[in-house]
Backbone:
């Protein structure tokens, strides 16, 4: 019995160390467990964003490029005219919107 108890403690201790080590690795890279490769997105979000003011309509919307990070200045949603109205209007206090073109 004494030997079985020590073996059980050793096994539980080893399991605890393995779980803690795995947890530490996960904390260092929280995206490592994703099923899809997000390395490109992580590199993109590590860059400084390009500031732009989003348009209030299609005619005033700036052109942006895919694969770049932007920081968009938005307008109050009530002042934005969309090419196609949103399916769900969110005209609550503090709602903002903007239009850009790819």
Residues:
């Amino acid at each position: 019995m004494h030997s079985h108890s020590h073996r059980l403690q050793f096994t539980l201790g080893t399991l605890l160390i393995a779980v803690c080590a795995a947890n530490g690795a996960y904390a260092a890279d929280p995206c490592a467990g994703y099923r899809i490769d997000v390395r490109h997105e992580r590199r993109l979000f590590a860059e400084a964003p390009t500031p732009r003011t989003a348009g209030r309509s299609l005619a005033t919307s700036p052109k942006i490029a895919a694969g770049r990070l932007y920081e968009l200045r938005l307008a109050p949603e009530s002042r934005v005219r969309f090419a196609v109205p949103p399916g769900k209007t969110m005209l609550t206090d503090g709602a903002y919107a903007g239009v850009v073109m790819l």
User: Anything to note?
Assistant: Residues 2-28 form the longest helix (27 residues).
